[in-house]
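Researcher: Batch entry, complex prediction.
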Amino acid sequence: MRFMIIIKATPNSEAGAMPDQKLLEEMGKFNEELVAAGVMLAGEGLHPSSKGTRVRFSGDKRMVMDGPFAETKELIAGFWIWQCKSKEEAIEWVKRCPGSSNEEGEIEIRQIFELDDFGSELTPELRASEERLRTELESRQS
Amino acid sequence: MRFMMLMIPKGYESAAPDTMPSAEAVTAMMKYNESLKKAGVLLALDGLHPPSTGARVTFEDGKPHVTDGPFAEVKEVLGGYWMIQVRSREEAIEWAKRCPASANETIEIRQVQELADFPPDVQKAAAGLTEMQPDNRRAS
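Model: Structure tokens for the complex:
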């Protein structure tokens, strides 16, 4: 099963503050453990929402709003994509994530949809196009 | 430059665990996904099961605390994402505008941090992170 591990924003991350040396080293070790366990699939940090934008949709109209956005705790600062046997395993890994000692962080765990999760709504044609898209993406070399 | 397009569907915060998109929605979205791929900008994409199936971990007082979804008082949740590689923020915004999204959906565009964006000491500490990830998701 794949999970998106969402690192919520904090006032520090939104301010563009850099993590300290200790946290960077701990994070590096943690990432190495994730790789060694075959759990790590991807991980990225995002620039603060002050550099972001939102698009809202209404029929044919598009409304574009620049960040920063309020509700810091609901914003995303970064994420991992992990492969785990269960949500419980993902939770156990998250509990070991090095935290910043100077503020409260929140990490959200969400299961990623796989083709097999979809019921009969996913017609054979749709399933075939999804599979083809995924295969082409995975074979793309950087 | 790499950007995340984060899909925020209003109402998903209270969606039941077995909620699934309809065939019509998936068909329309697949056309869009194909157009991203044809243009050579699509790096990755995923949909997420609703928060009612998820969990949150917080770290007050230095200890992990686990809460199962759904999460009360939450107004915005992530429904899925695309990662794209484009020349500018403006180009990322143009792609987001083309998404067949509905009136209750918002797409948030956020630039992905590259190692080169960080000061030298952070780059040094984060060395090796790029290699931990699959080729197809990296900047090229």
